[in-house]
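Work Package 3 (structural annotation) set out to generate three-dimensional models for the target panel prioritized at the project kickoff. During this period the team completed the workflow that converts sequence records into discrete structure tokens, so that structures can be stored uniformly alongside our sequence database. As a representative example, we reproduce one entry of 378 residues exactly as it appears in the project archive.
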Amino acid sequence: MAPFQPFKLERMLSTYENVVEYNLSESGVHPLTLRELLGDPAVIEELLDTELNYPQTNGILELRENIAALYPGATSDNVLVTVGAAEANYISVQTIANPGDRVAVMLPNYMQIWGIAHNSGMKVSSFHLKEEQGWALNVDDLDSVSEKTKLLAVCNPNNPTGYILTEEEMDSIVAAAERVGAWLLADEVYRGAERVTDGETPSFWSRYDKVLAIGSLSKAYGLPGLRIGWVVAPKDVIDKLWARHEYTTIDTTMLANRLAALALSPDVRPRIIQRVRGYVRRGFPVLSTWLESHKGTFSLVPPQAAAIAFVRYHLDINSTVLVERLIHEKSVLIVPGDHFGLDHFVRISFGLPHDYLTSALDRIHNLLVELTSCKENE
């Protein structure tokens, strides 16, 4: 088996995100407070009577019903609640594919599935979104998906680019999976965080009978601290995932289940989605104006969704080196493109309070001035 591949992005976040003064590495928006989520005093009183027992290990019924309502034709039996999308992705890959099987991963992407597959002795191939095409899918790549492929993995809306697949691109991915009989794992954690449209990004669920749709409260809901994710899949597959869930975490917490059910309820969810989109839509012009003020330094295909921008920079410095200098010299954390397999890019979060975002960008500007000055003095 190949040497263990650490999850470089999460290693860096785990080390620095709570140490730096300014964290622009997260891909969600500024989180809600418990007070904002609860709102009604009657709800608070009801929650205070919650027994802190084990919940049903696949998720309480109210939560699974609220999740199922987001996916046409799904029922609570099609839902497994997990500890974040991270567990959902992990047990999904372990359930569907075995060592030696082929897994095709969209790139660029959040590299968890790529790493899980490598560490499990699977053979990993890729198909690509192309910067020169506005991060559109290179459909021709799908022709090379092998008949031995067990799993195709996509992220839509995409991390790190914020690109939303078109209906035609989604159909092409489904056709590629169907052609070889592969399962399709769709990481859809940014659905609801759209910047350029009020319509919600459609799910891959119901487009094909072999789909695992992954969701989470961390990104499009501003509730990362609840650590609630889910898989929506055919019932027989959910039962297999549930069995693995009992080996990993057994269950999520009772209080997180109750709060998640509230967040996804018909009365509360629209308010949360509106809040998230507000942060995304207010924050992006701030970042965009800042990038434009550095003529010749940056180029960007604007993200269509999510609170992140995948920015190309035109400086003679490796992305990890640049980010490490920002951490140690300016106490600012962003994500190097190296963590997505693309040097000379950085991922910058903008779904943050205005003063916090502008202060962090000022510090990045100061390092850019120093780098430019050093270059001129050489």
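Residues 8-32+270-370 form a domain with the Aspartate Aminotransferase, domain 1 fold (CATH 3.90.1150.10).
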